[in-house]
Structure to design on (1472 residues):
């Protein structure tokens, strides 16, 4: 029935067939014409409301946001990333005697046990992150300058932070670190050549000198301490002491962290106390890590009661210097200024000044002063021990210790095996012979870099 | 771009003009019935058509069909359905008259006239026309629904070259799907999914929250009950017309349709139980050091001397001879174990029917399943309505709508520090932790963790998903068909997790005080395709089929996320906000295509096609990307010169060549910055950070494939062979090239650098050794081998390291690279020490994580239409698995037997020492890499059907009542020493493969009742 109905209609409509055929052709032609006329570029244009393009990031009106990004990257390079990765504080502390690895990552154990593969992923992330902080700080500082804000306090802070990234490389990494440049927006890519450790410190000094040329107040003091630290690393003790002389002992510049947002957490707290993947040294109150380590049994190195580690069987100790995820971490302090002056005095054999500077620092920490006669009775080697122990305790968990161990070898002629952890690690493995973090494998993508430039056994 | 559009316009205009020139003629009707020749049962759903035209119809439940408006004259009625040999019957149609043709169908091993519908052109092509092989799964014929719980399991081991590896025994977790190997170094290697002609969201890893490894695959949103058939285009030779998304192959799903005839009501219910009883959980060991050794009583002590030469300056470790060994595991403790007997229930029904003018299929399904581990459940509810209508004599429309509400709870497992499985297998059996009176009691788990802590972090995903499509097929002339399909896929995904307060106190803030986090995603996929196909008989021998069309695909996703801490017990309200984030991503593709086929005497076919794509993710310097294809098919057995071989039914040779692509990531071409929280002077403010380095020259990956083979059927279509060789080369492969880290930019960026080669051979043997009225047997044997090789990574690109796996030129992608070792008990003390192990200096290639050979046997037996038995035996081989579970237990925890018991074989001691000495990333030692070859009895199903006389008496359809008892994962034969060699602790990641405390598959039994009337 239905079939007949269709047939009937078809027959009835035969007269209109031609019109319909024209209609068909017209419809398809119209569709085709419309298609050809449409603008494909606009059809494929997509919304990207959460993507920031270089013109936006480089807009002078957005400099405060660019500044904040650079500060953030520095904080992560320094103190680590929430509960994921440590920063330079963690890994220089591991390689030195401040911490041992109580987690499960073999790459962190390699660092702890002084046997770091070139392909070590933890080391690579750390290295990348410090470069990221350096690059962003320098490029945003340049944006301030190009926006006629060369004297801005924010620019001074960025240059100071950049200077400290060079210090991190100089103190903690092998010689041979290159510094390359990939511009924000358009511009020429520049591959850096490997720099020796003194050349790296010289770069740091350039940044602090830039700041000293225009900054005042807080950032000037930060630059002074950075310069002093740089010169100390270069063995220019008198100049270092002069650089920091005007910094008050009470001065402290802290890198900010906040409990308000996870990405801004203090990961020194999180990774040691929260995750228990790092443990501060505390296995013994008389013996430090790997025979040579300090016992860290001082009021300036407070730690928790022993507990269970994330992995392993040795007791875990959390640190109590940073009480929560929002605690700031000192980067440059007046105490460090006094310690720099103390070391210059020690080098000059001015024992009274040496004791005086230390006592200023100890007083700030609420500790009893050294007695001059006691120090005078010590051998010079004992004074060096006292000095570096004081530095280790005052500046615990601030990425100073590895640089100091290297200086003990470089500047005070101590044998490596008398300074660095040796023997069997707390995890039961033997220590290797590395004294620095190293340039990672990925840097081989830099045609101007040669892996021979980096020897992690050279202090 | 403009030129391409003009080309399309001209093509369509010419087609329309030709239509206008056509002339009317007299028509008649063809009707009849189609039955199974062996059983005499009517065959519903069979396609009946007039050869050489676009006229076709589908048989109803009684097997009847009706073809209207057949031009008067001599014709051939062609009847074809999956699994049967095509039947061609000559018929004479007279104007205004009805001609009847009844046809009996014979089962065929490999059917050359089976129809494959292209989701791009909308054209139904017979297999004989295609130069490429297409995998086909007919749900009613090939799958016992009682044996599968997910779409991934439907795909598993049913088509050669399609590799489905189950990632774990966690219910709701996905599987890794590969077709003909891995194409891409950096992009997804999962195939494209098309449902009822619409591209859908098909992410294989779709879960934001941390579980340790397992995630949800969007493939498994599909309800197997609603699927009618699946077609698998295995590579670019077949999928060139699908363009910039199809390099990994295409899976086309067709959902069920109603058929003309009375309404068929189908209902089913099933109950299942699952358990891990087949696994023997290993004991944990705790060696206590001898008194006076200096090693504390609570420190583990290993039997092996773990000091490395040269001798260190520190005292040698004293812990070399345990005085006491404690053993135990919470997994064997019925109170402490996190495992239970899993269970499942499923209920559903459907209505299907209609008339010649309209059909409908409506269904609903409810599923509840509890996994074998506490904290692992699925609840799902689906609805589907598929309608078709013949709204005019030459215009058919169809509307398909599917809704899914699915909630999955995934437990902490694999590489989660909270995983109860991990902490049980690395547990501490020292009495101080196992004595219930002890203050440090942890139940034998790794202290301070215990069972409650392992279950404290609950992770959920709640999906609401709608996939809708509509299709119109207009046949303005017998030779012209215009197809249009449009559809959308809307997925609302709500990932939410909660850490109950007061349980995870050892982890400190924020876990201790409770944590709540949620990620709300909405995904929109819009797609539309329009095409026209014109068929011309150029002369008596040559037929021309021309298609042209355009396609548009748009994908969008929205994200809102937040987290907070400080939960009061029993509440999900947070007191301290922690994070908030939002995101948006969008991608658009426009494609234009044309295809031309010439057929000579319906036995030689040559097809050429070209598709051009532009995509919003291409670099700004890139214009259209073109994907050509060319194929040929020759049914040589139908040639007059071919000898008349009595045993041979059909022989066809085929070859195909084609290209398709994979687009880069949405923003990979652009240099971008992101906005992130920054703490500045104790205030949290937004800051710009470097995100992507960008690459303005970025192009899609282009995969080029050549395949060739033959189809052969013998013994009256009772034995068939389908053999295929393929060679697939991905060029311009996107490599996430590490950037010089001293740039201080993003760590890497996408560049078109690499080249990947996949080669292989596939063989499908279909046999029907027994074909009797009361007894029948079908066997299907499939074999595939795959050779994958990274030809090049690009100039000066070092190998890409993935832990103990690497992408290295000249070797398979993601191959295992480890340091070999040898050992010798030089001092004959029965113990191996470090100086008795010789460790290789460098890592060498040790094998691939992906099977290189696959062999599957599917068997179906029918007894008197009252009993059906099916079974699947699945073999995978030629690949390796890294047993991180044992590595971790032995090397890191000293908890395994080999670390403590001096009586274990020396090679196990040596493996521990070698791994210890080689610690670190890519330089691991080979002692824990194992042959992952396995053979599994995956499925067995026994179905009982009461006689038709009985079912009719109670008002049911013939075979309208069935009872099925099915089992899954029933047995595994392997030399792998872990629990299961198939699992992967990283879920469906592209390459990373290992067994790291991954829950093995459970054995599952299902009882199912199906009723239809």
């Amino acid at each position: 029935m239905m079939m007949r109905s269709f047939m009937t209609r078809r027959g009835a409509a035969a007269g209109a067939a031609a019109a319909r055929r024209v209609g068909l052709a017209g419809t398809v032609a119209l569709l085709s014409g419309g298609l050809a006329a449409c603008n494909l570029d606009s059809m494929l244009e997509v919304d990207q409301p959460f993507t920031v393009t270089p013109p936006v990031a480089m807009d002078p009106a957005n400099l405060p946001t660019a500044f904040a990004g650079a500060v953030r990257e520095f904080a992560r390079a320094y103190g680590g990333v929430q509960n994921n990765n440590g920063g330079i504080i963690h890994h220089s502390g591991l390689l030195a005697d401040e911490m041992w690895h109580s987690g499960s990552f073999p790459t962190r154990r390699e660092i702890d046990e002084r046997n770091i593969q070139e392909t070590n992923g933890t080391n690579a992330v750390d290295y990348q992150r410090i470069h990221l902080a350096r690059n962003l700080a320098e490029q945003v500082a340049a944006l301030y300058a190009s926006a006629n804000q060369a004297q801005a306090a924010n620019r001074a802070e960025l240059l100071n932070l950049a200077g400290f990234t060079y210090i991190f490389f100089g103190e903690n990494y092998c010689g041979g670190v290159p510094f390359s440049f990939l511009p924000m927006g358009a511009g020429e890519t520049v591959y850096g050549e490997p720099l020796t450790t003194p050349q790296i410190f010289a770069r740091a000094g350039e940044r602090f000198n830039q700041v000293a040329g225009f900054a005042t107040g807080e950032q000037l003091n930060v630059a002074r301490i950075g310069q002093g630290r740089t010169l100390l690393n270069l063995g220019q003790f008198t100049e270092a002491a002069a650089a920091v002389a005007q910094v008050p002992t009470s001065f402290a510049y802290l890198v900010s962290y906040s409990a308000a947002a996870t990405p801004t957490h203090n990961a020194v707290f999180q990774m040691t106390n929260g995750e228990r993947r790092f443990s501060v040294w505390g296995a013994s109150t008389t013996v430090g890590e790997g025979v040579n380590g300090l016992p860290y049994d001082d009021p300036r190195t407070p730690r928790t009661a022993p507990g269970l580690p994330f992995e392993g069987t040795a007791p875990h100790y959390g640190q109590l210097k940073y009480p929560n995820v929002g605690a700031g971490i000192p980067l440059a302090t007046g105490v460090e200024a006094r310690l720099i002056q103390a070391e210059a005095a020690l080098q000059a054999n001015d024992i009274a000044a040496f004791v005086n500077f230390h006592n200023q620092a100890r007083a700030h920490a609420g500790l009893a002063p050294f007695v001059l006669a006691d120090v005078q009775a010590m051998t010079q080697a004992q004074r060096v021990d006292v000095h570096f122990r004081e530095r280790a305790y005052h500046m615990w968990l601030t990425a100073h210790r590895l640089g100091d161990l290297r200086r003990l070898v470089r500047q005070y002629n101590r044998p490596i095996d008398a300074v660095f952890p040796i023997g069997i690690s707390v995890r039961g493995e033997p220590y290797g012979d590395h004294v620095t973090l190293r340039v990672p494998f990925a840097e081989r993508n830099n045609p101007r870099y040669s892996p021979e430039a980096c020897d992690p056994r050279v202090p | 771009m403009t030129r391409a559009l003009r080309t399309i316009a001209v093509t369509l205009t010419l087609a329309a003009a030709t239509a206008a020139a056509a002339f009317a003629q007299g028509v008649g009707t063809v009707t009849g019935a189609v039955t199974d020749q062996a059983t005499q049962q009517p065959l519903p759903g069979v396609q009946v058509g007039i050869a050489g035209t676009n006229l076709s119809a589908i048989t109803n439940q009684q097997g009847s069909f009706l073809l209207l408006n057949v031009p008067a004259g001599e014709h051939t009625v062609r009847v074809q359905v999956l699994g049967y040999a095509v039947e061609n019957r000559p018929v004479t149609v007279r104007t205004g008259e009805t001609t009847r043709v009844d046809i009996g169908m014979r089962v065929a091993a490999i059917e050359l006239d089976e129809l494959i519908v292209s989701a791009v052109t909308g054209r139904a092509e017979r297999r004989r026309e295609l130069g490429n092989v297409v995998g086909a799964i007919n749900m009613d014929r090939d799958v016992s629904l009682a044996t599968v719980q997910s779409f991934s399991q439907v795909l598993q081991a049913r088509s050669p070259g399609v590799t489905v590896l189950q990632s774990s025994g966690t219910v709701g977790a996905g599987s890794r799907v590969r077709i003909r190997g891995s194409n891409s170094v950096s992009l997804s290697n999962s195939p494209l999914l098309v449902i009822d002609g619409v591209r859908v969201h098909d992410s294989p890893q779709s879960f934001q929250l941390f579980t340790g490894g397992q995630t949800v695959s969007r493939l498994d949103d599909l309800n197997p009950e609603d699927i009618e058939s699946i077609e698998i285009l295995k590579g670019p030779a077949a999928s060139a017309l699908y363009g910039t998304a199809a390099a990994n192959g295409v899976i086309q799903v067709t959902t069920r349709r109603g058929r003309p005839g009375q309404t068929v009501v189908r209902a089913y219910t099933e109950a299942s139980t699952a358990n891990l009883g087949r696994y023997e959980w290993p004991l944990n060991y705790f060696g206590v050091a001898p008194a006076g050794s200096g090693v504390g009583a609570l420190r583990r002590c290993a039997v092996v001397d773990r000091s490395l030469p040269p001798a260190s300056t520190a005292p040698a470790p004293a812990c070399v001879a345990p005085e006491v060994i404690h053993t135990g595991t919470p997994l064997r403790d019925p109170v402490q174990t996190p495992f239970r007997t899993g269970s499942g229930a499923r209920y559903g029904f459907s209505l299907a029917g209609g008339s010649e003018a309209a059909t409908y299929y409506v269904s609903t399904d409810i599923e509840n399943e509890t996994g074998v581990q506490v904290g692992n459940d699925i609840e799902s509810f689906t609805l589907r309505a598929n309608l078709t209508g013949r709204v005019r004599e030459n215009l058919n429309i169809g509307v398909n709508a599917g809704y899914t509400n699915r909630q999955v709870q995934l437990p902490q497992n694999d590489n989660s520090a909270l995983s109860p499985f991990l902490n049980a297998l690395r547990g501490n059996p020292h009495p101080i932790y196992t004595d219930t009176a002890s203050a440090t009691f942890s139940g034998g788990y790794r202290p301070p963790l215990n069972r409650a802590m392992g279950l404290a972090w609950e992770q959920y995903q709640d999906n609401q998903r709608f996939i809708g499509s509509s299709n119109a097929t207009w046949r303005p002339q017998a030779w012209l068909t215009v197809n249009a399909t449009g559809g959308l896929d809307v997925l609302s995904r709500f990932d939410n997790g909660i850490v109950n307060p007061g349980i995870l106190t050892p982890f400190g803030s924020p876990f201790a005080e409770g944590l709540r986090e949620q990620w709300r995603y909405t995904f929109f996929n819009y797609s539309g395709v329009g095409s026209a196909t014109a068929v011309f008989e150029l002369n008596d021998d040559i037929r021309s089929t021309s298609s042209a069309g355009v396609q548009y695909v748009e994908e969008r996703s929205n994200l809102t996320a937040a987290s907070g801490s400080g939960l009061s017990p029993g509440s999900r309200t947070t007191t301290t906000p922690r994070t908030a984030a939002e995101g948006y991503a969008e991608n658009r593709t426009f494609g234009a295509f044309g295809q031309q086929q010439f057929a000579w005497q319906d036995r030689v076919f040559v097809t050429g096609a070209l598709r051009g794509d532009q995509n919003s993710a291409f670099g700004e310097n890139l214009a259209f990307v073109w994907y050509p294809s060319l194929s040929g098919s020759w049914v040589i057995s139908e040639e007059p010169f071919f000898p008349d071989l009595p045993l041979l039914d059909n022989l066809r040779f085929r070859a195909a060549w084609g290209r398709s692509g994979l687009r880069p990531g949405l923003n990979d071409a652009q240099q971008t910055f992101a906005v992130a929280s920054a703490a500045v002077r104790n205030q949290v403010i937004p800051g710009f950070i470097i995100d992507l380095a960008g690459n303005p020259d970025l192009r899609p990956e282009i995969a080029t494939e050549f395949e060739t083979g033959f189809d052969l059927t013998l013994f009256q279509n009772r034995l068939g062979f389908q053999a295929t060789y393929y060679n697939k080369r991905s060029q311009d492969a996107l490599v996430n090239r590490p950037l010089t880290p001293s740039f201080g930019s993003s760590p890497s960026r996408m560049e078109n650098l690499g080249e990947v080669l996949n080669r292989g051979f596939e063989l499908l043997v279909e046999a029907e050794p027994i074909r009797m009225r009361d007894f029948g047997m079908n066997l299907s044997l499939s074999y595939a081998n795959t050779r994958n090789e990274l030809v090049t990574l690009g100039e000066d690109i070092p190998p890409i390291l993935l832990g103990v796996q690497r992408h290295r030129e000249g070797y398979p992608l993601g191959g295992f690279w480890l340091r070999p070792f040898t050992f010798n008990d030089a001092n004959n003390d029965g113990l191996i020490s470090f100086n008795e192990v010789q460790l290789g200096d460098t890592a060498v290639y040790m094998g691939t994580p992906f099977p290189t050979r696959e062999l599957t046997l599917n068997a179906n037996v029918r007894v008197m239409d009252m009993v059906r038995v099916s079974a699947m035996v699945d073999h995978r081989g030629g690949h390796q698995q890294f047993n991180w579970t044992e590595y971790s237990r032995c090397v890191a925890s000293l908890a395994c037997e080999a670390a403590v018991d001096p009586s274990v074989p020396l090679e196990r001691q040596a493996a521990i020492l070698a791994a210890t000495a080689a610690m670190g990333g890519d330089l691991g030692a080979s002692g824990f890499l194992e042959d992952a070859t396995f053979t599994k009895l995956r499925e067995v199903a026994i179905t009982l059907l009461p006689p038709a006389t009985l079912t009719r008496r109670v008002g049911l359809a013939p075979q309208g009542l069935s009872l099925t008892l099915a089992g899954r994962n029933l047995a595994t034969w392997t030399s792998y020493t872990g629990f299961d060699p198939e699992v992967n602790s990283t879920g469906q990641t592209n390459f990373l493969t290992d067994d790291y405390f991954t829950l093995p598959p459970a054995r599952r039994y299902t009882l199912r009742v199906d009723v239809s009337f």
